[in-house]
Predict the 3D structure of the following.
Amino acid sequence: MIKTNLSFRPSGITETDLGFELAPGTVVNDPLWLLHKLDNTASVNSEPIQIVIGEGASLTMGTRIDRTGTEDSDISIVYDVKLAKGASVHWTSIQSGSTYSVNELITVTQLADSRLDRVAIVGDVKDYQSTIRVALDGEGAHSNIQGLGLLKDKQELDLTITIDHNVPNCTSNQLAKNILADCSKTTFTGLVSVARDAQKTNTEQLNRNLLLSDQARAISQPQLLIDADDVLCAHGSTTGALEESQLFYLMSRGLSREDATSVMVVGFAEEVVEGIPNESVKAVAKAEMTAQLALVLEGF
Amino acid sequence: MLEIKNLHAKIVEENLPILKGVNLTIKAGETHAIMGPNGSGKSTLSKVLAGDPAYEITAGEIILDGKPIQEESETDRALMGLFMAFQYPVEVPGVNNGSFLRMAYNAQRKFREEEEVDPLEFQTVLEKKLNLVGMDESFLDRDLNFGFSGGEKKRNEILQMAVLDPKVAILDETDSGLDVDALKSVGEVVSALKRPDNAFLVITHYQRLLNYIVPDVVHAMVDGRIVQTGDKSLALTLDEHGYETVGTAS
Ligand SMILES: Nc1ncnc2c1ncn2[C@@H]1O[C@H](COP(=O)(O)OP(=O)(O)OP(=O)(O)O)[C@@H](O)[C@H]1O
Ligand SMILES: [Mg+2]
């Protein structure tokens, strides 16, 4: 069974059968951590965890799977998030644990002027599939989804983001960065669809993959379905190894190859973590990033 | 201080020889200048000296302060006191300029078995050097050379040189892209760093820089070789008459 523990109970929160609701106007700045406690069972399917953020309310939230078991397992986790008018969520997801496969499905519905900022750090996972579907249903809504994957061995990360711009004047941003060592593999599928009357949509999408091994693979599949004509849409994708000229430059100042590699790799990864506004969440994310990077750089 | 003997080098990928027997001896306390037409191999020489793996030494020797270094890694050459200011400094987004400087400084200290400095102590070291170079502190917060103007990149190279205080510094066209004030301050930094136990090698196309950094010896490089060597008056001749008249390699 999956059991979700809240790190504390902010005023304005109501726990429901399947999740919680935050009352309109409530502001929760101290990060609320949702810890998904798992025991050693083989595989788990969670009921959808429903999160409803009331009008004008704002939440800083962190999620992580906390599994004590060491046996192989498959975990399926579903979130259903609703942002009312003017609501906002800063959501940081931290995932690591090399013994289990994760299949995560997140659906987000956003009403007018709401804002979602999600940063996910995924490292040292066996096989991680994440599907995020965002429906921008109210004007002025903004969705910002960033992910950092740190992979090694035969680990696989599959990230699919779908953003539906259903109404005019919404903005969305996707940033997926991955660092891949050994035989690891990642697939990024970024879909943006802009409905016919969703004019003045502004959407950006960037996928960057840093390959630390010849055997690592990164597949990037952007898809844009645009029916409106007054739309700003930028997308890009880069995949490559560390630049030799940059390594030489750093080493020519006395840095060892290991140190030069490490500062460049950290520099690549940090952008994602730096975007986390809450200092305490950022510190947790940074520590996680550093620990996972150390694993990825082991034997490099 | 730096001895280059019959140095031959090629570009690994193209298997193309560029340096075809360079001989050059720079004694401690001296400043040398190399001038030469575009494509004659000046930057190649700088990069080969610094250990760029894109080039392979096919013959010859490089001796720094009495020790052969051609087998040493680029890291170790730097730690042994060689510094090369790049003609085209490399942009490294994601790497903070100030932290990088401190890492490089500490790498040198560690190599000399001195204690590493913390950010606060380094701040004191840095302030003096920033003043000397005439660079604003705000550059330390930025990513290494990223988005710097051409001249700012050159100044940043000079700042690195001032902080690392090398035994042998090679300045590859540091003057190109610099305004007159910056040129003057490069001259001042070199004078401030100059000691009887270090040496400078300045690569330039223009006599102008040599008004600020006065060389003891001037060399003309053509087609991968030093073809003429003289005193500072050679720079004037080369600047005025070009390389048509310089003697062919002997
Ligand atoms: N990676 C490379 N591939 C092919 N040719 C190269 C490469 N690097 C250097 N060269 C060639 O080597 C020759 C020497 O180049 P180098 O940069 O050393 O010249 P330079 O004397 O510094 O010229 P400049 O005054 O223009 O800076 C040139 O003909 C150049 O085109
Ligand atoms: Mg050059």
